[in-house]
Amino acid sequence: MKKKILIVSISLFLITNCNVRKNVSISEPKFSIENCLEQNLKDSTLMTGWYYVADSGFVRQWAKTDDVYYINPRPIITAEDIIKLEIKENRWHELIFMQFGKRGTATWQEATKEAIGNNLAFIVNDTLLATPMVHNQITNGISIFSRIDYSKSEMEEIIKAIEKNKSDMIKPL
């Protein structure tokens, strides 16, 4: 029964109706998605970000479970596309609120449209943290990571890891 509750929680974490601050000022990402793909293929690792779940690709085990997924190594969103990270609480547990910049918002809109009825993968430090099912196109540049089996301190560590990945990104190839 616990596993069913977890799956429901994860599949509901992509939100479509959220008020987003307009005119967020942020510099454009220095990395292209192609640069990130090249780095992933070169290192056989997945940079922090969002990816498509695929029929083939890099095999990753879902953190804290035995579930295994194939991940397309071409990122949809990278850590560099995330302009705001915040822990929020709902009635049952904490979640991580993510807001994307201009490139990330446009990419997320197309990716979620394409992925309706399928799963996306959230990767941090080459670790698969979630594979939510997409139910609707998301046009506002927002995503939420929500897992009932993660504590607030684990969520804080995930935010620190994403921020570190943003600052550690090397110059484009």
Description:
It is a single chain. The chain has 4 helices and 9 strands. The protein has a single domain (2-16, 46-168), classed as 2-Layer Sandwich (Gyrase A, domain 2), CATH 3.30.1360.200. A hairpin with a 2-residue loop joins strand 7 (120-124) and strand 8. It has 173 residues and is an alpha+beta fold. It is 29% helix and 25% strand. Strands 1, 2, 3, 4, 7 and 8 form a 6-stranded antiparallel β-sheet that branches. The termini are far apart.
Task: List key phrases describing it.
alpha+beta; 173 residues; 9 strands
Shape: globular
Number of strands: 9
CATH-derived architecture: 2-Layer Sandwich
Tally of helical segments:
4
Radius of gyration: 15 Å
Kindly estimate the percentage of residues that lie in beta strands according to DSSP.
25-35%
Give the averaged pLDDT, no decimals.
83
Termini gap: 47 Å
Question: Could you give a quick summary of the protein structure above?
Answer:
The protein has 173 residues and is of the alpha+beta class. The chain has a single domain (2-16, 46-168), classed as Gyrase A, domain 2, CATH 3.30.1360.
